[in-house]
Structure formats: structure tokens, C-alpha cells
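Dear support,

I submitted the protein below through the web form. The confirmation email said the job was done, but the results page showed an empty box. After a refresh the structure appeared. I'm attaching both so you can tell me whether what I see now is the final result or a partial one.
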Amino acid sequence: MANPFDINRPLRVAVIGSGPSGIYAAEALIKQSEIPVSVDVFDRLPTPFGLVRYGVAPDHQTIKSVTKVMQKVLQDPRVRFLGHVAYGRDLSQADLRRFYDAVIYAVGASSDRHLDIPGEELPGNLSATEFVAWYNGHPDYQNLPLRLDVKGVAVVGMGNVAVDVTRILAKSASELAQTDIADHALAVLAESQVTDIYMLGRRGPAQAKFTTKELRELGELANADIVVRPEELELDAQSAAWLEGQPALLRNLEVLREFAAKPLAGKPRRIHLRFLVSPVEILGQGRVERIRLEKNRLDEKMNAVGTRVFEELEVGLVLRSVGYKGVPLPEVPFDERKGIIPNREGRVLREGQVSPGEYTAGWIKRGPSGVIGTNKADAAETVRLLLEDAPHLPQAPEPQPEALTEHLKRKGVAFVTLEHWLRLDQLECARGQAQGRPRVKVTRLEEMLAEAKA
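What the results page shows now:
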């Protein structure tokens, strides 16, 4: 394909969001050789990598190693990282059209779904999203009003995030002190009085969303026994038939049966994996004290149906992990029901029609599904369409890279460059090395900016 632009300038692309989908989109743009490109990757925080930095559990450092590859993308001369620049505050839709030929929205799904039951307004009912961001040092959540002076915690959900949250609550402070968990979180977790953590699934063990690897980890914790009720592992006919030919789910069931048969070792904490129960009310005077559950059965379509049999658990904290959802961006179309930017394979739709020069990738494109690597193919699909459209895109009036940075300076935006981020990264790693940890995160926005630009 011939370069449709003036030979003296490359295609200018803005990527909003520097998480996996945003960086994989930038990578797909620079890996192709048909059209010269110049890519600016924006993030509202001074730090790149999105959920890899703020979502992956601190005791899963191997997964975080993907940032080394991502950093190489940001270090490519055709790519600029511009942190501490918020779309909607520092950058408008008009700015994007003025300085760029195309934009890719890759902002993820930063909100969460509610249980929609009475008592959700009580203090002590939080989302797993908030809890994960808190222990991972996200600057927006460092002052989360979290109390662990309670014996019981309910984690509502049966996905890998629910497993992560449960594992962090179950581990000892000495185990967590070897990770890059935020210092403020480590201090609170060190004083935790939690003895019982209940993971609650509304359907049966065959429908649980966690992976076998994550599940096995729960049974290998030095600080917690695992409790599974054998009667809750009994399968109805539909589930048994559905499991045939699904080796991953069968492995999960085998592991759960091993857990159920294993005697308790008298460890300080207990993890209770409960199936076929739905929270119907959160109870308490002024804060969470109990959660009311209804026993379920599965209908012929394997949907959970209440049986009008109830029980209550004594818990002082509820963490819901029932799914992420996207948040609308200013002046960008949004599908409230699906929680995504309406799109056709990555081309943004405005009133059902493709909007020239606007694209989306990642969870805000398809919804919160898959693992980190899933975003790579997803971003590549979007970029392929963008390049296909390139000859017909309206050209930006001010495509020079310095035009954008001068505009931000005039607005007084204290943007962070890759050089600034690398300085902060080096500081965090040095502090971590001194304590025998991967890194010690800077969690306050003001300190991040000061250290980055020191």
C-alpha cells in the first residue's frame, strides 16, 4: 500500500490508554512497514501498563514480566508516552482531530458491576476492583476506607480476580512482604484479624470461571486451610453432560474434590469455597455485619434459580467480584447496556455509522473478557482496519508532534514523558532492591510527579 500522506510526514495516531490493549495497538502500528507512523500513547496516570501494574496480583510477578516487552514498544523512536494527560480534562475531541489522523480508545473497563441487593450502601461493602487497586498502589485508591478488624469476609464471585483477592486476604504479612504490594496495604494486612474468607458462587462448580492453576494455588497456601462442602460438588445431569469434553473444567472439579476430601491442618485462616448460593441482602447496624444467602438450583439452561432456603454468614467485609464494566468517555459514543464503545470490529460507530478516524481496542471494545494476551490479537484487528482506512482518513491540520506538546504546555498540563517514567521506575526498583523486593511503589500522585521530574 502506498503511503497516502505527504511523504514528509507519517500517519499520526493517538492511543488513549497505556494498558495492554493500548500498548499492543502501538506495537501493531510500528510492526507494519506499509505506512510510516508516529504514535502518541496517553495515560491519565504518570505510569504506563494499566492493569498489569494495578490489576495483576503482587504475588504473581511472572505475569508482570510482560512489562519488559511493553516498555520496548514505548522506547521505539516512533512512539511517545505522555502520562498524566487525561482525555476529557487535558485533551478534547477537538484536540484529537486537530493533531491526529486517527485515535484508538483503549481505556479498559475501570468500573464494576453491583449486586443490586438491599444493604449495598453499608460501609464495608466494596468492589474487588477497589480492593485490588488499593493493594496494588493505585493513587486513586490509597485512602480506601478498608477495615480488616473483622473475622469473616465474603468474596462474591468465582473468577480469577475473586481468587486473587481471597489469596491476598489469606496470606501472612511475611509472605506478602516479599512482593511489590503497596506499603500502605501491607501495613493494614499485617494487622488483619480475618480468620474466614468465603468465596461465593451463584452456580455450581462446573460453571466456575477460575483457572485450574489459580485454584490449585489456594490449596497450597501455608497460612490457610481450604474448606469445600462435598454436597455442593454434586452435579445435576445438565452440568455433568456439559462437562464432557471440557478438560479444563473437569480438572477444576477434580481439584475441588481433592480439597473436599482433605482434612484440615489447623492453619490460622480458612478459605470456604461455596457453590449454588446467591447473596440476597447485606445486613448490619451502621456497617456490614452479616450477609444473607439463598440456596440455588440450576434450571435446564444452567441458570441459577433461588429455592427460598436461606442462611446467614457473619462477615464484616463484602468484596464483590461479579464483573468489570466500561465507563463512558466525554464526546465518545457509549453503549450503556454492554458497557462498551459501540464498534464494528474496532471501528467506532456513531449513531450506527462508522466514524472516520475513530477506533477502539481491548475491554472497552469487546467487554471484560480474556487474559492479558487476548488483547494482542484484538488490538491487531483494530490496527489492521485503521491501516486499511488510512488512504481515506481526514488529515489532521496540525500533525507535527511538537504541536501537541506545545498545546499541552500552554494549557499548563504537567505531562510525563517516557524519560520521566523511567526515572520513577528506576527509583521504585532501587527501593525494592534495598528491601529484597521487586519494587516499592510510589503511590501518591504528587510524589510520583515530583520523583519523575526530579
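Response: this is the final, complete result; the empty box was a page-load delay. The chain has two domains: 11-110+326-416, 114-323.
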